[in-house]
Amino acid sequence: MKLFIHKIGLVLLMAVLVMPVAAKVTYGVRFGGAYSSLIQKVDGEFNSGARFGFSVAGLADIPLYKRFSLRPELSFVNQGGSYYSAPQMEGMGYLNKCSYYSIVVPVNLAYTFLFTDVRFSIFAGPAFDYSLFGKMKNKETDTDILFGQTKDKDLKSFDLGVNLGLGVEYSNFFFSIAAFCGTLDRRAAKNEGETSVYQNNVTFSLGYFFR
Questions:
Q1: How far apart (Å, rounded) are the C-alpha atoms in residues 178 and 125?
Q2: Which of 80, 96, 153, 201 is deepest in the core (most CB within 10 A)?
């Protein structure tokens, strides 16, 4: 699985590097607020512990064919949320509140159409999430998250997600809404009875294209 993901990443990276040579590339920047949550299933129901963070990114719009374009991003994101651990304890045990910083690289396929002077875009694609550092708090501890370690209180450093969203552009300025849905369990280790935890984000951004 890891080898397959690495191959996909290599192909996408080569596409991003090669396509600008033959296409007119538009670059842009954006900044926004991120409503992020960690999702887990508890007693047959999905629980979502959420928090507010931010996302700042540089992006490119690479024309492919007619109204289609490739729209990769390189973003720095403050994300996280909360989840329960130690389910054998009364009341599900500890509520772990997480805040951490990640490099997220969405590689979106965008479809853009014009209505008078306004550009509307619909985009979707895979997103690669690599977490760098952060904090975890519960009723007993306030500690750093050691990404990539295999202890109970640590999280995995890598996530592969699906990114999709909408954008509206007028006079080079744009507003976008994007949702990231993680597909990999972020927990580094689980005790018996503990469930998987997945990262979800919804980001509202304002940005500018240098057309």
A1: 11
A2: 80
User: Domain count of the chain?
Assistant: 1
H-helix or E-strand spanning residue 2: helix 2-22
How many residues are there in the chain?
A: 211
Q: How many CB atoms lie within 10 A of CB 123?
A: 22
The pTM for the full model equals 0.83
pLDDT at 161: 96
Q: Low-confidence residues of the chain, pLDDT below 50?
A: 1-7, 19-22, 91
- Expressed as residue numbers, the domain containing 177 is 2-209
Buried b / exposed e over 194-207, threshold 16 CB at 10 Å, is bbebbbbbbbebeb
pLDDT value, residue 211: 84
